[in-house]
Amino acid sequence: MKSSAGNGSPNYAGFWVRLGSLSLDGIVLLPIPLLYFSILGVIHPALSTGAYLKLGFFFLLGFAVAVMVVYFSWFNAAGRQTLGKKLFGLQITDGAGKPIPLRQSFGRALAYFADTVILGVGHLFIPFNRKKRALHDMLAKTYVLRIQQRRRFEPLLIVMALLGSGICSLWIAGTIRSSYLQTFRISTGAQKPTILTGDFIMVDKLWARKQTPERGDIIVFKYPVDPRLDYVKRCVALPGERVEIRAGTVWVNGTEESLELLTQDYDSEEGQHVLEYLARWPNGRSYRIRHYAGHDRTTENHGPIVVPEDSYFVMGDNRENSSDSRYWGFVPQQNIMGKAGIVYWSWDRQVPLSDWIKKVRWSRIGEVLQ
């Protein structure tokens, strides 16, 4: 197929027209995240937090990505055009200027998705490449050609497409973050051994709109002393309950948090020998906590105090390395942002980045937080 260059030489599409085309296609695909939100709302009541986040993040998000890959694969193959490319008069071709087959188009779509993972930096190749190829074009051996003359209103169309796509992206990101799920990076060891320093966790924010914490839930909340900070702790006592700490042991309404010793180990990050316990309550809820082996727990006493209405008493699982309700008071219901659900990524900050295979804690990816 001939390009619109007029002299027979290829007329490669430039950076801004390609960005405008891609932005229009993003608007076309807007129904996918809308369907995604609807499904999340429907499945939420029927699943645990961990199962909901796993399904919502890994499966449904994967499905949305698959739909986008299929869309770009199909409409960029065999001379077809996505809506964005049709409006700008663009087409994907091979080195000879011929339309690419479906298989090559599929490979290009996968390469494009890989580029989005690295924040689209592959598109920056376009202004500096003689044939105006992005990174995914180079990987797939494809080119983007103009097959129609530039229209007078093209600059306005590019601006409108960029603005529309930007507004949609901000709305989608804002909706997910404010109402459905949010990610947090853990920078302290206050929740060891359950959550490690360097973990990236996913929080169920829809849960906070429909439910209240139970004893043992790991919640994320605005720090009451400084709401600009986000804290992650475990809920230990509920509104109206009487909580007391006697010699390092927690009692709620006269019932002891029973501890069963699991392991003894050395934490090189904190420079402490630690004792890890399985903590249990009569209702069957259990979770892991730890104490420093050299800490004199007989000196640790608190209360008794009664938790106010619409407030909660929280503690870190790493009992001697946690700033929590023992020191700054209760967490109001309105400060609670969501329930911690899964680890979706994890770095070991003691391992150098050069040894990234060992630096990633592969076994923790997808782990449900209990």
Can you tag this structure with a few keywords?
10 helices, alpha+beta, 370 residues, seven-stranded antiparallel β-sheet
Q: What would you note in describing this structure?
A:
- The chain has 370 residues and is α+β, with helices and mostly antiparallel strands.
- Helices cover 33% and strands 25% of the residues.
- It contains ten helices and 16 strands.
- The protein has helices at residues 15-28, 31-43, 49-75, 83-88, 102-117, 135-140, 154-180, 205-210, 325-328, 356-359; strands at 90-93, 143-146, 181-185, 199-204, 218-222, 230-237, 242-246, 249-252, 255-256, 258-267, 272-280, 286-292, 302-306, 311-315, 331-332, 336-346.
- The protein has a seven-stranded antiparallel beta sheet. Strands 9-8-7-13 form a four-stranded antiparallel beta sheet, with no helix packed on it.
- α2 packs antiparallel against α3 and α3 (49-75) packs across α5.
- The longest helix is centred in the first third of the chain and has 27 residues, at 49-75.
